[in-house]
């Protein structure tokens, strides 16, 4: 009799423990919310990413048209004109401190410089395995190209502060190929216009889909 009583007590304990475990499990979220994902910054495509909360985290985006001598793989770049420039709040990769033949220089309270990636389009050289291949352009596609659109994203902040840059200059092997003052008011206004234009296009597309 005592043995049966002890067995009943043990079964009751097991049932209570199982019930408690079920309550705890039901209180947990089967699909917990994912951790916040920060933008992936790709340094060879300096595209503005996301909108940070801090006002000082801005980038300038310039649309430049460049040219170089046809067939010259190492020919000097020339900036023929700037077709657009705007400023927007955006994350940007930390490129300050990189070095190379093509450089961006920001001037203001201090001077900051960093290397830019050569914007000329690259193609695989079909003659890579031939003799005297060093005499043939290896990577740059130049034949038939006399002008190329280049979008340059310029970080205007570093870490937790603005660079307070007043002007920018682009050099190639030390020679100045482009320079301009940073017109914060005009470029921010242009950035706002672009946002409005994008919203209008999106609304128009939604209207077309609903019709």
Automatic annotation (TrEMBL):
<keyword id="KW-0732">Signal</keyword>
<protein>
    <submittedName>
        <fullName>Uncharacterized protein</fullName>
    </submittedName>
</protein>
<feature type="region of interest" description="Disordered">
    <location>
        <begin position="188"/>
        <end position="211"/>
    </location>
</feature>
<feature type="signal peptide">
    <location>
        <begin position="1"/>
        <end position="22"/>
    </location>
</feature>
């Amino acid at each position: 009799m005592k043995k049966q009583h002890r067995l009943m007590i043990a079964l009751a304990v097991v049932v209570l423990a199982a019930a408690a475990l079920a309550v705890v499990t039901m209180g947990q979220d089967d699909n917990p919310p994912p951790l916040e994902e920060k933008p992936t910054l790709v340094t060879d495509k300096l595209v503005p990413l996301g909108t940070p909360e801090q006002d000082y985290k801005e980038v300038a985006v310039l649309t430049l048209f460049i040219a170089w001598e046809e067939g010259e793989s190492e020919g000097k770049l020339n900036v023929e004109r700037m077709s657009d420039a705007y400023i927007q709040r955006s994350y940007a990769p930390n490129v300050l401190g990189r070095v190379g033949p093509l450089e961006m220089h920001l001037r203001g309270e201090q001077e900051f410089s960093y290397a830019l990636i050569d914007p000329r389009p690259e193609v695989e050289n079909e003659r890579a395995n031939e003799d005297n291949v060093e005499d043939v352009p290896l990577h740059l596609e130049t034949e038939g190209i006399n002008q190329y659109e280049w979008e340059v994203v310029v970080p205007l902040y570093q870490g937790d502060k603005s660079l307070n840059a007043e002007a920018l200059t682009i050099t190639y092997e030390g020679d100045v190929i482009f320079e301009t003052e940073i017109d914060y008011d005009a470029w921010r206004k242009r950035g706002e216009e672009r946002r409005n234009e994008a919203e209008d296009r999106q609304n128009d597309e939604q209207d077309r889909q609903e019709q």
